[in-house]
């Protein structure tokens, strides 16, 4: 089990990797010095993330960002994509300049790489490259049989392409959507050695396609690993209305807030845990929806999603319209 | 800075005899980590963190189904790689759900596990321990589980055999050990203590094995420590003047004490021991007698050590005093502790800098 340990850290430097992905170099020792504790840098293993406290509309929230590379100099590196039309964590991070103080939690890993497997297929889409990049470097260093497929919308969205090319050579395949390049997942999976593992990080559409292709291949489900942030769906974020007849409540959910946040703000008692669409604790029953439901979780099966009878409120939303929900509140 | 760990984590440690691990869930604590071991249907041993991802109930309280462990509380299922393959009351599996799986290799009749960074777990680093294979050298050893002492006290014990004179006076002890010169050499991963005692009457244990009444012998003790946790002690006697010190042991009997010592906690350890020989290999009665000579309900050679080691740890707890006072006979033990400390320090540097050790 991994304890979450928070510390005060200092932003040492930033570097723009693309027009909307910025690398942040963070020194955790800085904060330790002021608190008098010993240096507490923890070398992140591939797939790790750190949590960062961000200020959103004056409120403190936490965001998780994958660490980038081995961080061999004792400084944490994360890459943050600035999300358009967002007042959220990414906008806060992008507002920071070197020297800024940050509260961070040391690395934890929920997307761990298994070692000594016969082969590895890595698939990254967009900002999903961050954990996959660290995995690729580590696997190359270990002499593993590894192949990386990296898809982006436009050539300008490519981050780490040169570094990856230098490390992987022709074991790297880049796909640029705008240039009509399509990833043939079935073929890539078929070329993976038996017992090989598949690691995926990217937008929901890519992840769904990858899972379907993996299922079609007949390979064991446990050999496919993925990490999800629940922040992408079939539709762009749009505001929508919520009605809760049981509580005689009606309120709006803004484009940049989650349904769960809006429920809590409206005073609805909720339980939740992962806040990334994995655990299923924040699920509420749907009474009706007059707009398209955008299920962004990985808790429900595709069959359950098609029923549209429940919603994972931490990540899923309505693409405009009125969503009528029930809650577990009962009279004493 | 907290006190340095008494043991490195990036190393292979014996966790069990291979014969101990079957189709049952065997819990054990290794280097402060609770693990559960079991044999999979393909014969390989799986070693998982002994705590369910969900509510931390020890998985060893659950049961095996095929190659998977079913948690005895809510039925979550984990495969030999530690990945969750079933969650109750839902159609999907949380992608984060996994327990730690430790690299494990069965070699030299022992199951070795790597408690540290799995990326560094190279089976080529398992210490050479082939005298335990049960082929050219035979013997049936055993284990002191949860021996109540710091594992380094066992290493100290084996890296200085002058104690035989006092602890084992009825079997292998001999005042002549005290007078014989010894040599300690080392590499960056091993320490070797060599002592030849020339032209003596053999002590009782060796007199019986040699079975040459009245003969005088040359006796040798060549003890090699392989950092951080294994000792092979090549020991024996040969008729004096027949060239044993020069390499001809044909007129003697040769045995070896084998020790794989695994920290359980900072103050307890598992001591996997064996005493093997390369003569009368088919003599099962002799094998049984030698095993009994070492561990026999408190009366064997190792029982005598056991008593000393636990009493020593208890005294250390009562009178914390570091370092010990040292004598010249402690050179082997001190080199041993130096190599371990260096491994721990290198590991700390590597972890701090995020680079692989080596």
Helix/strand layout:
The complex is a heterodimer of chains A (332) and B (358).
Chain A: E1 6-16, E2 21-27, H1 29-35, E3 48-56, E4 59-66, E5 76-81, H2 89-95, E6 101-109, E7 120-125, H3 129-141, E8 146-152, H4 161-168, E9 172-176, H5 185-190, E10 197-201, H6 204-217, E11 224-227, E12 240-244, E13 249-253, H7 259-265, E14 283-289, E15 293-294, H8 302-307, E16 310-312, E17 317-318, E18 322-325
Parallel strand pairs in A: 7-8, 7-10, 8-9, 10-11, 12-18
Antiparallel strand pairs in A: 1-2, 1-6, 2-5, 3-4, 3-6, 12-13, 14-16, 14-18, 15-17
Chain B: E1 13-17, E2 26-30, E3 33-39, E4 45-49, E5 63-65, E6 68-70, E7 77-78, E8 84-86, E9 104-107, E10 110-113, E11 142-147, H1 151-158, H2 164-167, H3 175-179, E12 182-186, E13 190-200, H4 204-210, E14 217-226, E15 230-239, E16 252-265, E17 268-277, H5 284-294, H6 301-318, H7 331-353
Antiparallel strand pairs in B: 1-10, 2-3, 3-4, 5-6, 6-7, 7-8, 9-10, 11-17, 12-13, 13-14, 14-15, 15-16, 16-17
Helix pairs in contact in B: 1-7
